[in-house]
Each structure stands twice: as C-alpha cells, then as structure tokens.
Design goal:
The chain is mainly alpha-helical and 142 residues long. The chain has helices at 2-52, 55-67, 69-79, 82-86, 88-98, 107-118, 136-141; strands spanning 125-127, 133-135. It is built from 7 helices and 2 strands; from the N terminus they run ααααααββα. The chain has a two-stranded antiparallel sheet.
C-alpha cells in the first residue's frame, strides 16, 4: 500500500505539472496572438498610408518616423482617426475593390502638418520704402 500511495502522489503531481504547463502554453499563445494583432494592425495602417499618400509624401513621413518620432506621431494622429483604426479592414477592402484611391495626399500637406507640429508659422515679409524687410503684421500695425 505504501508503493500504491506513492504512485498516487506522483500521479497527482504529474497532473498538476501538466495543468501548469498547459496554462503557460495558453498564456504564451494569447500573448503571441496579441502581438500578431498589433503587428498586423500597424502593417494595415502602413498599407493604407502607402495607398493614400503620394510616394514622396510617404517617403517624407517615413523619414520623419526615423528622425523625429514626436513630429511623426503628431502627423499620424492628424491623418489617422480612431474611426479609421476601428474600421481598418473595411477600409482596406474598399481600397482593394476600387484598386486604390482617387486622390492622394500630396507632400505639401505633410510638410504643412510637420510645420504645425513644430510650431513654425509662415511669415509674409514686406519691403518698406527704405529697403528694410519686416513681417506683414508689424508693417500693418505701423
């Protein structure tokens, strides 16, 4: 009976080990699935940006992504709303069905958003009678 009791304990320990092993494997699968979804979502968003932006605009945005991530994030948030993220699969289906989009976003818009993110405002320079240059706001107030 001593041997039989010992084998029951060993069987119970083996069952517990198997349960823990299965739980760990399931947790790992869930984590992998979550990672795949994140990767696929970012890949889908990248695909949509490639289709919607003109090639030079997309290249400029990718350059900003590497060199100035904060500016890139600002532009990305301006271009991609929460609705786009929620309906990304539907949007991709429409793009594929129509074989692209009618009008693409030009480089000028990306540069405008970049300047806006950096807080750079355009200045209109006016030449006074004596050849001195000054911005339009100062000229008009004088």
């Amino acid at each position: 009976m001593g041997e039989n009791g010992k084998s029951n304990e060993e069987l119970e320990l083996e069952r517990i080990r198997l349960k823990k092993m299965q739980a760990m494997m399931e947790a790992q699968k869930k984590q992998q699935s979550a990672n795949d979804k994140v990767i696929s979502l970012s890949e889908k968003l990248d695909y949509v940006l490639k289709v919607v932006l003109q090639p030079e605009a997309y290249a400029h945005l990718e350059k900003l992504k590497k060199t100035e991530p904060n500016v890139y994030q600002y532009i990305f948030n301006e271009l991609v709303s929460q609705d786009v993220i929620m309906n990304i699969d539907y949007l991709i289906t429409i793009i594929n069905r129509q074989r692209g989009v009618g009008r693409r976003i030009p480089l000028d818009i990306i540069i405008y958003l970049e300047r806006k993110a950096k807080g750079i405002r355009g200045k209109i320079q006016v030449k006074k009678g004596d050849g001195e240059m000054m911005d339009l706001g100062s000229y008009l107030t004088k």
